[in-house]
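Researcher: Here's a chain I'd like modeled. Treat it as a single chain, no partners, no ligands.
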Amino acid sequence: MGLARKPPQPRPPVASEDSAGEQPPGVSVAVLRELQSLQGTGDQILDALVPRARLRQLEAGQRLLQRGEPNLRVYIVISGRLRVELDESPLAYIEQGETVGELSLLAGSAATATVAAEKPTQLLVLDEETFWWLAESSHEFSVGLLVRLAKRLRSNNDAVQENIALRRQFEQAALSDPLTGFRNRRWLDQTLPRIVQRHLHASEPLCIAMMDIDHFKQVNDGYGHAAGDAVLLQVGRFVRDNLRPADFAARIGGEEFVLVFPQTSMPGAISAAERLRESIADAAFDYEGSALPQVTVSLGLVELEQGVSPGQLLARADVALYAAKQSGRNRTEWPRRHARPEKVTQTPPQRGGTKSAGSRNRR
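Model: Modeled as a single isolated chain. Structure tokens:
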């Protein structure tokens, strides 16, 4: 038959230089018994704890722990409330009966957060020696400590997951145009080099179109910027309706867009660009019930060639766009267009499903 372990006899507390503000114990066993972190601990152990522990009183706003500074104490809240801060923003609250400081003590590291009194707070202070004595003497205290640490770690994991989700949202927002929902210039600068490299490595065709809304400044000047935004949104809907899921669109500024046609050779890209241009030119645009002038777009289209960088590809598309503007607008231009024996734009080849994946026979 085993013998129950007898709790060690209390020893007088040893004063230290970092015990400033702490007072001799003046708390009863009855008060300790009601604290959540000490529930289940026997009265003999609590009797021995009273002379070992110290008391500390904090005024509202007074700091207990400073992030980055060492800590070798565990604090139990007798009354009041503590606030855990990161970058001066409240992260959590430590209520009556709960503990703080055990993570840094167990890890032998600095405090990972700043802790201050939310309101006047009284604390029971356990130095390192007393903490380990209590953990060895009371099975209930040790189990409770493990449960609290597990909950705290799970809470931290949930916070990490939430922060990851928020970071992804911020990254998405940083790479998107808030008005149209298309990608922006930053996304294009980051992603186009990878798209180009992938197609060059696989020897697959790739076409890029630079698209500009014709006379867009006249809409803004004559009808207001809100009407201009409405035109951008309606043009955006036509772009979505006429591109495959595999294609990309980015608004790179004002009324200018870049269209990316992966795995698409020039005949298929011409078909896609002309279909989009014609659908916009045939549409009636309005703002708040009032009709707007006819809206048209011009496009400059180029195909990827060996030895051409992403920047050069966009520059060539811009040159083709300028040619479309100089030729009267509401048209698509591409290199060597006028050297082609047939007029591709009159009978564009059938696209193999506007919303289907794959190459839709553009090659």
